[in-house]
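Cross-posted from the bioinformatics board.
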Amino acid sequence: MSSRSVTIKDIAKILGISKSTVSRALSEHSDVNQETRKKILEVAQQLNYQPNALALNLKQQRTNTIGVIIPETVNRFFAKAIGGIQRVANLAGYNVMICQSDESYITEKNNLRSLIASHVDGVIISVSSETDRTDHFDLLLQKKIPVVFFDRIREDLHTSQVYTDNYEISFAGTEHLIQQGCQRIAIIAGPQNLHNSRNRLNGYMDALKKHDRPVKESYIVHSNFTGGNIEEYTRYLINLPQRPDAVFAINDYAAVEMMHVFKKNGLKIPDDIAVLGFNNENIGRFVEPPLSTIDLPSYDMGAVSAEILLAQIRDASAPIQRKLVKSQLIIRESTHRITTP
Amino acid sequence: MSSRSVTIKDIAKILGISKSTVSRALSEHSDVNQETRKKILEVAQQLNYQPNALALNLKQQRTNTIGVIIPETVNRFFAKAIGGIQRVANLAGYNVMICQSDESYITEKNNLRSLIASHVDGVIISVSSETDRTDHFDLLLQKKIPVVFFDRIREDLHTSQVYTDNYEISFAGTEHLIQQGCQRIAIIAGPQNLHNSRNRLNGYMDALKKHDRPVKESYIVHSNFTGGNIEEYTRYLINLPQRPDAVFAINDYAAVEMMHVFKKNGLKIPDDIAVLGFNNENIGRFVEPPLSTIDLPSYDMGAVSAEILLAQIRDASAPIQRKLVKSQLIIRESTHRITTP
DNA sequence: GTGAAAGCGCTAACAA
DNA sequence: TTGTTAGCGCTTTCAC
């Protein structure tokens, strides 16, 4: 009942042998006399010996822990990604330390500092929407801590990156709207310092160009992900002299809120205005009409990120990887016009 | 540019003093000559000295890390709770290690084992819906690791607990439905090994009794939180000889899905059937009609849990606490009948 | 006020 | 095959 836990020293004392022998027997990969090994294992079992991870950490200067920095856990996209990361990490015997940047550069920097101070073996990160510089990542590279960026990546850094095809899927979504006969397609675009947002906007614009639709500034609204002003933006769009007949929203919550406002203003969805979301939240299946959206492979992106990171942790010479995980267009009724051209 | 980080030994060598003096100067609370202290701090600053947390951990047998076990991060309730926990923990200089039990007893047990192996200083936990025993928590108590249960608590254990008034709020919600003139109120109840679910069911039943409504077995459906069978349950309720005219759902997702099915079957909400949700998800504001629900104080529960835990970590003799954080009934149109009795 | 030495629990190089 | 020793980076007695 002593609250002190048992150490190899205790086992050694009991058997009258040295602690190095005990250490060797316990760590499998050294030659120890079968007899003594057996005895050691028995005693270890009896005393319910558990190696002290803290001692190992100090000795080996690693922690079997990976750090994760994401903007926020309440965002379903990241919550799912965490699931994928943890799955892979836990199977490999790694713990996961999670930090939230709350979309703030300074918090992200502090998170990073504290993860480094905790000597995590590697870091997976999706940068905050506010972050427009990369100097705070230098410390990781300096300390040779493996790092994988996912989703919100930084192409300018020479590190592993896991991302999805924002440009292509945005292109495909816009093209889908065009094929439904939509002529004036508006977009709620994200923060332009984010690579993803730029790609999405480019995909949208290029699809319009391909089909000879003019790209109008007034149809492009710049927002952030928290969507505080969606109602205002929606009203703005409704009141345009040339009201759009389709809108590609920044995410499903914005899309649903917009639908709400459109309906209150007597607009029919999708015939007066088609609505396409982004993120495939549960909510989209239960609104009227059900929301078309883009399914982002967040769980898989998390899992893939963890796999790449672990490979780099285990072998410092493992190559930097850039991996694409594809998104998918999910067509429901909010963009499905009966009267296609 | 050496990748080895600087230690107190380095500083000592440079100044030609002993490392104990350096240690003392750096750890504030010992008397060191003003002159030498100043020099030490200067050099430390110059070399950008960072104490090695691993060495400290071993020495002091603690890690400045708290462990958190929750059923799943994709559940918005828990995602928000994590936010509250992290806020408080980070301000106090603690890191947070998060594990998901995926609603599985065995995973929960493994999570616990791995957190203990990592020597977390304390644990915050919300038990899985599958967990119907407490033996796996003994290890925590044995090792005298402070623990706080939140939301999904275990009243039978002598530990700190943070919970909300499930009974009272469920009573209030049911009473609200009665006051709207509902006569036959059904409930989608949760797993009965969960304390919360039992309390909610009891609140529901007692409210009915108080107002002389009979409690009918056929109006009580037992479900789990993932809600795979909601559509089936809904159809079952619709087809009852005495169709209910109100339903108190297990959570907002279930409520929204039920509304969807009700509407498809030509039922008007709330006049044919009123719907009350649970959890106050964003989704509830944007469905037709907007969903009445219960707002659970998840962020606050997380924050309060962390505060209690930290108090117990800092002072082992700090008292066990049981703290109630109140929920709130949010009335929207899905339960607001114009024709009250 | 400062230094020497021991120790947290473990591993690993070197000796025997 | 096993024991001795040193050391990971830090704190903390105990001398001086």
